[in-house]
Design brief:
The complex is a heterodimer of chains A (about 575) and B (about 475).
Chain A (H helix, E strand, L loop, with lengths): L1 E6 L9 E7 L6 E2 L4 E6 L4 E5 L4 E6 L6 E3 L3 E7 L17 H14 L5 H6 L18 H10 L17 H11 L38 H7 L6 H6 L16 H10 L11 E2 L2 E2 L3 H17 L18 H6 L23 H16 L2 E9 L1 H16 L7 H14 L5 E4 L4 E4 L5 E7 L2 E3 L2 E2 L7 H16 L13 E4 L19 E5 L3 E7 L2 E15 L5 H16 L8
Helix pairs in contact in A: 3-4, 7-8, 12-13, 12-14
Chain B lengths: L4 E11 L5 H10 L4 E5 L5 H6 L1 H18 L14 H25 L3 E11 L2 E6 L6 E11 L3 E3 L12 E2 L1 H4 L8 E5 L3 H12 L3 E6 L10 H13 L3 E4 L1 E8 L5 E7 L4 E6 L1 E4 L3 E3 L32 E3 L10 H15 L13 E3 L4 E6 L2 H6 L4 E7 L4 H6 L5 E7 L5 E8 L2 H14 L3 H6 L9 H10 L10
Parallel strand pairs in B: 1-2, 1-5, 2-3, 5-16, 7-14, 8-9, 8-14, 9-10
Antiparallel strand pairs in B: 3-4, 4-5, 6-15, 11-12, 12-13, 17-18, 18-21, 19-20, 20-21
Classes of the chains: A alpha+beta (about 575), B alpha/beta (about 475).
Chain lengths: ~575, ~475
């Protein structure tokens, strides 16, 4: 029996991360190969992630709603090779004595009896660098970490061969020397929000300034006559930090640890992988809970550490200045009545796309109204025929055809500006994107080669794409390759709008509702069906006159639908 | 197009698009900073246009021709004819591809490129005179500046690069024919690389050097191997002599006059004189004083370990910031400058910067020599592997040289490496990684190396230092 980890697979072209929306399985569930285990929402699509194993779900590493980079472990399966699925679970509760004993040794190695806060400030010569020249041997990654944490690397004790300094050594040093209450800052996770809770401080038993888990025994032992004894006894049933030097854990587990302010090296476990201790998210949570209940037992507020939030941004300035307070630029905290809605997945993609379009292309919107008596008649005439062929005929295919007529006459509206190459590409295809409102947000599926398709064929295709867009069943490829877009806001209501171009396209036509409106004919105001049009263009590429002329051609084809036959 | 002075603003202004400047600009743009890069003539700087890349192209070309004509022992009989014009044309093609690539990379990363010459107006403003007549200028307000203006060959009195027969290294890399006789003033790495190249192309090369050996900073055994090989190729050396002047010779060529410290004069018949006595920083026209920056007595801008000049928001990287004047050092400094500006905890904290000389054979060095290690207070242990014990070296026909590793005896940390021999410029990378990572001799020795390769010599040298070499006698 083995436990297999399963990583979030590449779920689509160029998709780097996805939001894990729903788990379809829970630990203990038996799954078969190819059975969907989770729903993941990427930039534009909701996809089901199938298992690649037969087995029993061992652990879920990601919370619902979490963003997961492609390649991160999301779930592990217990894969049975000899059919026995149940036996190994009980072992993990067995006593942690062995690891504790080992932990004791480690402490002796990595702990300096002197107050390290002093050592940092002291001249480098006092800290006995590993070499006579004062040079420190550490890989670039550890040196960078030291700068991030504001640690003088010359003062760090290396635990590697010959005193080589690893990242763990730098962290241990930073924790030992840092302000009380500041748990080891997590590194490289600028995107994580600072932990709002004060980090659990299991080791602060009254000796002041000592916070590192590694420090605990020294603090309690050496200072026992100075009144630390009762504190030590109060802490006696607290979990002992394992204080390993290295620990295997998945990125998700490490994240949980960071969020809970727990060092994975301190989390007790009997589980190993390849001979290294292996810690799961459950272990971390259990340990964190144990710590918290202990922190409650010790009279925490009395010598409560500075309630400074831990700076996890890794900013050198902040670290160097010792200032870890919240920055002035922080967004205001939501009020009690406010609701926060995550800005990611489809919502964020739409937002970014809109932002890019508006900030890149200077928009101008041209408005006009087509009088569409003839179009209404034409559709009414074709409708029975369409129904006989099981096609739901809307006005959309007519509009699409009319647009193609306009684009053929004015190719600059069917274009893309490639600024870097200093060229405008006039597209040879007529692929029209149709904006569709869905529960998750705006989707723009693309109908390809509109010029080559008949009205009924277009009607079918639009209906199918729109329906599938609403069901979130579109493949990413079905939303690519558009050369011009249409937005039918009139379907919901309204006459005119200022549509935003589906960048890098250069134009978009918005359709108002077809309704009877007053028009003037032969000096009389009469009621007639009209179609308000709102055409937004990228003014870098298209001049206003061109836009107006294009709109005229489109209107002409809508007002005289027989012209569509000439295409 | 725009005549007159228009004002724009940028977060980061980078002056000079060489390997320091363009790398800094790209990283700054990657950090999300609005970045403007000003270049006055050629993207890629001296490195791509007049230095590293063109010289390596000609070194490869001349080496290939020479190799093919001198492989009788392998049973190859050939007498290659070299069309120098064509070789230079090929070299130019390589350069164009690379410089075009630099420009594209900058654009793709969102760097604003401006062609022109920048000078400081005050601490936060620079004026850029656009290239070409009547093109106007613009003022650019910047929050941070990175000066990366590089260096140019030093000219010596009596030898004006404007003269046709007086070459700078740039001229030597753009020649359309091979001179019959080439005099080279300076036996440093540039002089030696070009001496080797032109000797292989058939020129009679004479090197005049003031010191008593070539390649000043290198150890004697390294120098000797390169010098002896150059002599084999027909290069004549005159040490302890300085070039004083040139005069026209009776044969239509020129005479290169030299003088020893004692006043003894000599003359050598030449057709061209290459002056390669070093490079000096380019800061003229920058009006650094307007930004409050002074240069040191050699003209360099002094910087700290975060590449900042005395005026903190103005950084300097590359040759203009002083030694080591190496393209890869410039690039590293450029990255650090951009990251520091972006607020990242970057610093020039590398343990060592490797260096390579593309002579025949090549030299690659990194970190400390045995003497330097001793001077720094280490108790150094040294291990060597001569290439004449390397099977792969024998099969290339080049067995001169060795790999030497210097390490701390007590801890085993690798401190330095000196490699002279085939592909030394490539082999040095492994030693650089070992030093940077804090690897020990044991780490290097225990890393399995591919057989049969030249790189095995690095492993063997580490084993030799530990007294456990298999293929050489342990010291």
């Amino acid at each position: 029996m083995t436990v297999e980890e399963f990583r979030l697979p590449d779920v689509g072209e160029g998709v780097a991360e996805g939001e894990l929306v729903t788990w379809l399985v829970a630990p203990g569930d038996r799954v078969e190969e190819d059975q969907p285990v989770a729903e993941v929402e990427t930039d534009k699509a909701l996809v089901e992630v199938p298992s690649s194993y037969d087995g029993v779900v061992e652990e879920l590493f990601v919370e619902e709603g979490e963003m997961v980079p492609v390649g991160d472990v999301i779930i592990s399966f217990r894969v049975d090779e000899d059919g026995d699925a149940g036996e190994a679970t009980a072992e993990s509760d067995a006593g942690a004595t062995a690891s504790e004993a080992a932990a004791g040794d480690d402490e002796a190695d990595t702990t300096e009896p002197d107050d390290e806060a002093d050592a940092i400030e002291a001249d480098a010569t006092e800290t006995e660098p590993a070499t006579p020249s004062g040079r420190t041997f550490a890989p670039p990654s550890a040196r960078r970490l030291a700068r991030e944490l504001g640690v003088d690397i010359a003062a760090v004790d290396g635990s590697g061969p010959g005193g080589r300094i690893g990242e763990a050594d730098v962290r241990a040093h930073a924790e030992g020397g840092a302000d009380a209450g500041a748990d080891g800052p997590s590194v490289g996770s600028a995107s994580d929000a600072p932990d709002p809770k004060p980090a659990p401080t299991p080791t602060d038993v009254g000796s002041g300034g000592r916070t590192s888990a590694v420090k605990k025994r020294d603090a309690g032992g050496a200072d026992s006559e100075t009144g630390a004894a009762d504190a030590a006894s109060a802490a006696s049933d607290a979990p002992d930090p394992a204080a390993r030097e290295t620990t295997l854990a998945t990125p998700a587990t490490r994240k949980v640890a960071r969020e809970l302010g727990v060092d994975v090296d301190d989390v007790p476990t009997d589980d190993t992988r390849d001979g290294e201790a292996f810690v799961t998210g459950e272990d971390v949570r259990a340990y964190a809970e144990a710590l918290e209940s202990e922190a409650g037992a010790v009279d925490a507020p009395a010598d409560a550490p500075d309630p400074k939030p831990v700076d996890v941004s890794g900013s050198a300035d902040a670290a160097a200045a010792g200032g870890t307070g919240p920055s002035a630029a922080e967004p205001s905290a939501p009020g009690a009545a406010d609701e926060t809605v995550p800005y990611r997945g489809v919502r964020r993609t739409i937002g970014k796309q809109m932002e890019r379009s508006v900030y890149t292309a200077p928009h101008v919107t041209h408005h006009d109204t087509a009088e569409v008596d003839a179009l209404v008649e034409a559709r009414a005439e074709l409708k029975p025929q369409a129904e006989a062929e099981d096609v739901k005929l809307t006005y959309m295919p007519f509009v699409m055809k009319a647009i193609v007529a306009g684009l053929k006459e004015f190719p600059s509206l069917n274009s893309e500006l490639r600024e870097d190459d200093e060229e405008i590409v006039l597209k040879g295809d007529y692929n029209l994107g149709i904006a569709v409102a869905t529960d998750a947000g705006l989707m723009v599926p693309v109908v390809e080669d509109v010029d080559e398709k008949g009205l009924f064929e277009l009607a079918d295709e639009v209906n199918d794409l729109a329906a599938r867009a609403r069901e979130r069943e579109l493949a990413p490829a079905e939303m690519k390759g558009g050369t011009f877009s249409i937005t039918n806001f009139g379907a919901i209501g309204g006459e005119y709008a200022t549509p935003i171009i589906n960048y890098p396209e250069t134009a978009i036509l918005g359709l108002g509702a077809i309704e009877e409106r007053p028009v003037v004919r032969d000096g009389e105001v009469v009621a007639a069906p009209t179609l308000p049009l709102s055409l937004s263009i990228d003014h870098r590429v298209i001049d206003g006159a061109e836009a107006a002329a294009f709109a005229n051609t489109v209107m002409e084809h809508l007002e005289h639908p027989l012209l569509l036959l000439t295409l | 197009m725009v005549v007159g002075d228009i004002a724009t603003g940028t977060e980061v202004l980078v002056i000079g698009a060489g390997p320091g400047g363009y790398v800094a600009a790209i990283r700054a743009a990657q950090e999300g900073l609005d970045t403007t890069l000003v270049e006055k003539d050629a993207y890629g700087g001296a490195c791509l246009n007049r230095g590293c890349i063109p010289s390596k192209a000609l070194i490869t070309g001349s080496g290939l021709a020479h190799e093919a004509g001198n492989a009788e022992s392998m049973g190859i009989h050939a007498d290659p004819a070299v069309d120098m014009g064509k070789m230079v044309e090929w070299k130019d093609g390589v350069v164009d591809r690379l410089t075009g690539g630099v420009e594209k990379l900058c654009k793709a990363n969102g760097v604003n490129l401006i062609e022109g010459t920048a000078s400081f107006v005050d601490e936060h403003t620079a004026r850029v005179a656009h290239g070409g007549e009547g093109q106007g200028s613009e003022s650019i307000e910047f929050e941070h500046a990175i000066v990366a203006t590089g260096s140019r060959p030093i000219q010596i009195p009596g030898f004006d690069f404007a003269e046709d027969h007086v070459w700078s290294s740039a001229d030597a890399l753009a020649a359309d024919s091979v001179p019959d006789r080439l005099g080279i003033v300076g036996g440093g790495y540039i002089g030696m690389e070009l001496a080797t190249t032109y000797a292989k192309l058939g020129a009679d090369v004479t090197v005049v050097e003031m010191l008593d050996d070539i390649l000043d900073p290198y150890e004697d055994d390294v120098k000797r191997i390169v010098r002896e090989r150059a002599e084999e190729l027909g290069v004549e050396f005159h040490f302890g002599e300085g070039a004083s002047e040139w005069s026209e010779g009776a044969d239509g060529g020129y005479l290169l006059h030299t003088e020893t410290e004692a006043g003894e004069e000599s003359t050598y018949g030449v057709d061209k004189v290459l002056v390669a006595v070093g490079r000096q920083p380019v800061t003229d026209g920058l009006d650094l004083e307007n930004a409050g920056i002074e240069t040191d007595d050699r003209g360099f801008i002094e910087t700290d370990d975060r590449t900042r000049s005395a005026v903190e928001h103005v950084h300097a990287v590359g040759d203009v910031a002083g030694d080591p004047m190496l393209a890869h050092a410039a690039s590293k400094e450029g990255i650090v400058a951009a990251e520091v500006i972006a607020g990242e905890p970057a610093a020039l904290d590398q343990q060592a910067i490797p260096a390579a000389v593309f002579t025949d054979p090549e030299i690659g060095t990194v970190g400390l020599t045995e003497d330097e290690a001793e001077a720094e207070g280490f108790d150094p242990v040294v291990g060597e592997m001569p290439f004449n014990a390397s099977g792969r070296a024998m099969t290339t026909g080049h067995t001169e040289g060795f790999v030497r590793l210097v390490a701390d005896d007590e801890t085993g940390f690798v401190l330095g490496a000196q490699i002279v021999g085939p592909e030394a410029s490539e082999l040095i990378a492994e030693a650089a990684l070992a030093i940077e990572m804090g690897a020990t001799l044991e780490d290097v020795a225990a890393t399995v190396h591919t057989h049969p390769t030249l790189a095995e010599a690095v492993m063997e040298a580490a084993e030799n230092a530990r007294g456990q070499a298999i293929h050489t006698l342990n010291r």
